[in-house]
Amino acid sequence: MRAIDPCQQERTQVAEGGSVMRMNRRRFLSISAAMAATPAWAGVHSWHGRALGADVSLKIRGARGASVAILAQMRALLTEVEQLFSLYDPSSAVVRLNNEGVLDNPPEQFTALMAAADTAHTITDGLFDPTVQPLWRAMAEGRDVELARSAIGWDRVQWDASRVRLGAGQALTFNGIAQGFATDLVTEHLSASGLTDVLVNIGEYRTIGGTWRLGISDPQHGQLGMRTLSRGAIATSSPSAMALGDQAHILHSEAYPRWSTVSVEAETATLADCLSTALCLAPRQMIERVRATPRVKRITLVDSEGNLTSL
């Protein structure tokens, strides 16, 4: 699910080791919000920069003093998320865990995301698995993929509030859930600050109030429909949106993509994000079962021929 964005364009990135990854949309993250009972004289205050590996636009409509304070808080919150979950920051918590195999006294938000990933792993019968990072690196760097596959297995990760320990050869990636988690953190902070008309796009979308029109699009087949959202979250995954050579970027030790695009509407962006990722690999029967679970509102499927199905 993508908002209609005239800035979408083809681009190419080079991964570590020189292997080419292709992305078919420009990543641009945005947060737009207005305070309750915003006076007519209030202005729009904004910040543009980089966060979570993308261009970011933050816009708050309200009195200057309060708006500037909220913008600063949002920037600090995004920085905090990067310091926890970014694979490109050598000092982040997840990189330190991957390098050392253990993380003592993990921050509260780190264990909260671990818990969310564990729930997604259970709901999807193991299709959502953050331990695929060794496979990603092996494919990007042209190394032994079968050896990397043998390291995959969320059930081998031991964790609680005091320590996270990986199995031999394991490494984690939260790229299939961290953007949704960040979206929820920002949305809830804005709501607690008194903002009532909010659209947060940090790779996934979550709204509070207002009426927001979002387009359903597929990398191969273009825009296929629209959704109207006033509360809740939407996340979309498309295996062909990024490729490692001739391989789709959504990886698993055994399963392969079955759908061109999967969009999930749920109460939180965290849940929508991880489910949209995993269900790209899922048979229709599992998707129907997941749709019936609490907090999931709708699932939209696009097959390889561009046919759209809404559950």
Task: Characterize the structure shown.
The chain is α+β, with helices and mostly antiparallel strands and 311 residues long. It has a domain of 73 residues: ApbE-like superfamily (T-fold), CATH 1.10.3980. It has 8 helices and 16 strands. The strands form 3 sheets. Strands 4-5-3-9-10-11-14-15-16 form a 9-stranded mixed sheet. Strand 10 and strand 11 form a beta hairpin. Helix 6 runs antiparallel to helix 7. The protein is globular. The two termini are 15 Å apart. The N terminus is likely disordered.
Total of helices = 8
Q: What class, by secondary structure content?
A: alpha+beta
Oligomer: single chain
How would you spell out the order of helices and strands?
Answer: EEEEEHHEHHHEEHEEEEEEHHEE
Head-to-tail CA distance between termini: 15 Å
Uncertain regions: pLDDT < 50 for 5+ in a row? 1-26
CATH topology call of the domain at 93-165? T-fold
CATH hierarchy: architecture of the domain at 93-165: Orthogonal Bundle
Mean pLDDT, to the nearest integer, reads 83
CATH class of the domain at 93-165: Mainly Alpha
Tally of DSSP β-strands: 16
Strand content: 25-35%
Brief digest:
This protein is α+β, with helices and mostly antiparallel strands and 311 residues long. The chain is 30% helix and 32% strand. A hairpin with a 3-residue loop joins strand 10 and strand 11 (222-237).
